[in-house]
Amino acid sequence: MHPDENVAEAAPALNWQDGSTLRWIEQPEEVDSAFARGEPLVGVAVIALALNHPDANAISPRVARAMAAKEHEVRRQGVIALAHVARLHRTVDRRCLDLLRGFPRGNEADDDLWSFVDHRRLPLWLWRYHAAQRLAWLVRDRWRG
What pTM does this model have? Predict the structure, then answer.
């Protein structure tokens, strides 16, 4: 065995002009600093944080901040990050749910919340959306058959 084989590969330096290096972000403080600097790719960093950090309680405030951003793309990326949190951690916080309600239904987070979070923790508006979707599928299948 080569002596360097047990050494973990170091993440490349972050380049805020190139989103490809941002996938390595795993520290909430890096995302907070990006928000403070007004980085245009902060939404990419929030998605990376959702994928890399083990604690949903540390991730969720940054996801909520992205979802509440004035930039459309950062808001959209916040919804994607919320979907990852739901899928990987099987949880959602109240602030993110409150913000999600203002987004059009059928987004990535709607379906991942419904699929991975205990339904008893989800609000009535999300239940109604998924009940209506299920009813539409049943009716459509009935007409085909």
Answer: 0.83
